[in-house]
User: Fold this.
Amino acid sequence: MTDNTLMIYHNPRCSKSRAACELIAAKGIDAEVIDYLRTPPNKEELRGLLTKLGIKPAELVRRGEEVFKELYAGKTMSDEDWLEALAAHPILIERPIVVCGAKAVIGRPTEKVLELLDADD
Assistant:
């Protein structure tokens, strides 16, 4: 792994997110943990995360959440619309997101995190 700072966008109530934190700690890596429900990313931060992930905003949406079902299910939305929705309702952001330098992965399954951690070994 490079010497870039590792960050994890984390929801402590999510088992996959906790598992990703445990995996990172087990590798002896210190990471900056961001509880994204308490300090949600704004639209520009989301745009940067999406670039690092290499995905469109709609691909970051958790479709099982109540707020999705109530407000967004069945709607046709642009990338900008999804960015606004994700910024307004951070619970919709898929988690965990692990970032290192210019790359990021969604830690589902948790083993996806290893792709990022082992990338430069």
Summary: The chain has one domain: 6-117. The chain has a mean pLDDT of 93. The CA atoms of residues 8 and 21 lie 8 Å apart. The longest helix spans residues 15-26.
